[in-house]
Amino acid sequence: MEAQRLRLKDALKGTPVVVDSTSDHRLRVEVPTKHAFDPQRTAVKPALAAVLDQFATGFKPHAATTELQIGAPADDKASGRTVRDRAASVRDYLVGRGVPISRIVGLGRAEGAGLELLVSDRPAGK
Description:
By secondary structure, this protein is an alpha+beta fold. 36% of the residues lie in helices and 25% in strands. It contains 4 helices and 5 strands. The protein has helices at residues 2-11, 33-36, 46-59, 80-96; strands spanning 18-21, 27-32, 66-72, 104-109, 114-121. A 5-stranded mixed beta sheet has the order 1-2-5-3-4. A hairpin with a 5-residue loop joins strand 1 (18-21) and strand 2 (27-32). Helix 1 runs antiparallel to helix 3.
């Protein structure tokens, strides 16, 4: 996981994207909402697409041993449906870049103010 974090951090240096580790040892990537989605829209913006391309490249070699959760941001007027549709748009984009859909284990609302990707080691036996 640390190698993935360092690769992404280096690839995204100079951007507003945050790449770090959580206290429970998950890789966390956060993209500010203004770079991810237009207000009240669910389509992936080009800036987010560039981040997702880098993410997919790093995730695919480790897909057998890791899982991904996608947390989509709300905005002032976004409904729960908008949040779900944003997460689904990110999922579909990543699947289109070769990330196995079986490794995406959660879609929901982000804890922070931007799009959040959380990668964790796959539990044994799954």
